[in-house]
Hints:
Layout: E1 2-3, E2 9-11, E3 14-17, E4 21-23, E5 29-32, E6 35-38, E7 41-44, E8 49-52, E9 60-63, E10 68-71, E11 76-79, E12 88-91, E13 94-98, E14 104-108, E15 117-121, E16 126-135, E17 137-144, E18 149-159, E19 169-171, E20 184-185
Parallel strand pairs: 1-4, 2-5, 3-6, 4-7, 5-8, 6-9, 7-10, 8-11, 9-12, 10-13, 11-14, 12-15, 13-16, 14-16, 15-17, 16-18, 17-19, 18-20
Amino acid sequence: LETLTATGSIIANTLTVTQGTFSTGAGLSHTINQSISVAGTFTLESGGVLIVGSTGNIGSITVNASKTFNIKEDTILKMHGPPASTPSITINGTLNVYYTTIKAKIQSYDTVSGPFYSFTIGNTGTLYIEGLIFDSSNTAGMVINATAVILDIDEVNFQALQAGNVQALYINRTTGTYGFSACSFDSTCTIN
């Protein structure tokens, strides 16, 4: 297990978790100026803030197939990039988001003027969300591809999405039954 221990840690370009487990450390704030690639297990610990991207670099997070990204409670993940860019989160492995008291939040670095991030669960992805504030995404919202596994999408607050938002949650399937418990959609979610 590798853990960042000092608050304000800045990694100039990329963070690549090639194997094993990497943790941000509870209650700490970090900036990754460009991208995170997960080929192991990456955990955003409780109470932490993680900024991915910068004014000069488009932020991206990619979780490889069969690998894991854990987001614990009371954390903030801010996606950043140059104006008119689209920072991205792509989960081809497993995303686990859970809380006891305070929900985690995924948002754009500037929630008013963007750039607004894309969020995709790929065909090999698995999604387990038990409490999340999904804030200021781009107009596609949370996209879940056709063969992704949905274990749980409960207690998600979809809010403050990019102006002109078409959808907050898009599941690219023509058949199937899914249960979603205690999700909310504010007025920026025009379809759902």
